[in-house]
Here is the input.
Amino acid sequence: MALLKVISDRCTGCGLCVKECPYGAIEVVERVAVIKETCTDCGACIESCKFEALYIERRRPRQVCDPSQYQGVWVFIEHEEGRIAHVSLELLGKGGELAQALSAELCAMVLGNAIDPVVQEAFKFGAEKVYCVEDPMLEGYRTDPYVRAASHLVRTYKPEIILLGATTNGRDFAGALATELGTGLTADCTGLEIDPDRRLLIQTRPAFGGNIMATIICPDHRPQMATVRPKVMEMPEPSDSRQGTVIREGLPASEERMLTEILDFVPNAEEVNLADAQIIVSGGRGLGDPKNFELIRELAQVLGGAVGASRAAVDAGWISYPHQVGQTGRTVRPRVYFACGISGAIQHQAGMRTSDIIVAINKDPDAPIFDIATYGIVGDLFEIVPLLTEEFRKRLGR
Ligand SMILES: Cc1cc2nc3c(=O)[nH]c(=O)nc-3n(C[C@H](O)[C@H](O)[C@H](O)COP(=O)(O)OP(=O)(O)OC[C@H]3O[C@@H](n4cnc5c(N)ncnc54)[C@H](O)[C@@H]3O)c2cc1C
Here is the structure.
């Protein structure tokens, strides 16, 4: 329910606020302005009122929502310059399982400009319906127009669950959208299930520094929203033959009212794509000195892999944060993960334990990393890493 209120004995029904509202959320009935459900409390109308007959109530009343009005599992498909974030496709896989458990539809939400290829990709990966808003204002991610577009879709079509990737933009968008919709959001979920009796999304995520797994529910508000990091969920199998329905809506916003403007796009010169790397060689405090990361870089280069690090190495300033693997860094799922001089604290494991093969090199035979390692080498990394580099160089001819 909107917090925008009309003081009826001041309102003359002049209709200025109706013209000003970008959402078409005000009408005049019997010479008094009436606020409709689509109002977002943006406040655009307040200044236009010459009679000071409009105001926004300060406290947001506890929202009582009827969950039966909300249906379907939506996945937000994040994309940039035609490239879809892999995590969005992974979430279509998980979303499909949740939708099946609810006997509901799996839908995608696509926002942007020239989005047809993205829409087709969403169908390939399992979406039955795609809700989209296509507008030049949505070219490139910006919080304002994206939240306007998404909240319009959500208020109109009422999904019961929305899943989003915990990427840089996904985190920003999810928080802003949940606030706009007055609902809950669980960030960085590692598990998502359905409680079939209550039709609730059971959201699991590490809490208290990764020492416990918390189960979080959102019983009183809809939609139930969750973000998930890349590589936490399995990538579903695509199928070219899948098709579905596209539902298009316009963007209820104008450029003049946006808070931000994109002036230029400067790609990060030091791009570290850990999420998509098939091989990662990571170094930790056991390296003892920043210059020793060169050993890690050499091995990674010979294997055609990426360089990762523990938080201890990042906190020491030996390597930059985009390389950090773990609970407060990246979650990775490569085919092979080398942990060199890394003890294997639970927070580090949280970001890499689902790697297909883990090779641990540590001089302490009791280091926790050996509990999850596929191959454990007990020894000095300064001897072992160069030997591995040399051997792989020979065998791979590099
Ligand atoms: C809320 C929270 C979030 C966190 N998030 C993260 C995160 O995202 N990622 C992360 O990594 N950590 C994270 N941490 C920190 C984590 O708890 C550990 O402190 C950190 O992972 C330790 O890094 P390390 O293994 O490099 O260092 P250490 O634990 O000091 O381990 C160094 C290892 O190197 C071995 N070693 C030393 N010399 C050699 C040698 N010459 N040859 C072979 N082995 C050698 C030692 O035996 C030891 O096992 C987090 C902590 C908290 C509280």
